[in-house]
Amino acid sequence: MPPITIPSDDHRFALIIQPTGAFRLLAWLPVSTPHHALCCDTARPIDLTTTLTLWVDQDAAAYGEKSNRAAHGLIQLYRPAPLPYVGNVVLTGTPDADGTAAGLSHPQALALIDLYLDTATVGLMPRPRS
């Protein structure tokens, strides 16, 4: 079994959330683009914060992609009434003036997954009786 390596601070990632609820970290290189990560022609950016952008496939609904409940659960923490996103979504850093999306640091990407798990498991853990 190969050793587990922790990425250095200069490695960047995109976080892909699939409709199945699976999360994947994608290495984000200087040539990476949201539309390549989503395998689509038109990736639409949605600003969540000043440092976090959600990218969606503009045509996913037309192609009959499934609803992405995992993405919806995470995004509602940033937007009070998020749209019902379908298909894969990608989270990156905010695009620069040229529209090039910045990658997330390893801790940022893992913090997003932790945030989702913290909210998705509410009610699943037994609570102490009063």
Brief write-up:
This protein is of the alpha+beta class and 130 residues long. The chain has helices at 34-38, 69-75, 106-120; strands at residues 13-17, 23-27, 43-47, 53-57, 89-92.
Name its key features:
five-stranded antiparallel beta sheet, single chain, 5 strands, alpha+beta, 130 residues, 3 helices
User: How is the largest sheet built, in terms of strand order?
Assistant: 2-1-5-4-3
Structural class: alpha+beta
Alpha carbon gyration radius:
16 Å
Low-confidence stretches: none
Structure report:
With 130 residues, this protein is an alpha+beta fold. It is 21% helix and 18% strand. It has helices at 34-38, 69-75, 106-120; strands at 13-17, 23-27, 43-47, 53-57, 89-92. The protein has a 5-stranded antiparallel sheet with strand order 2-1-5-4-3. The N and C termini lie far apart (47 Å). The mean pLDDT is 86.
What's the helix and strand layout?
Elements: E1 13-17, E2 23-27, H1 34-38, E3 43-47, E4 53-57, H2 69-75, E5 89-92, H3 106-120
Antiparallel strand pairs: 1-2, 1-5, 3-4, 4-5
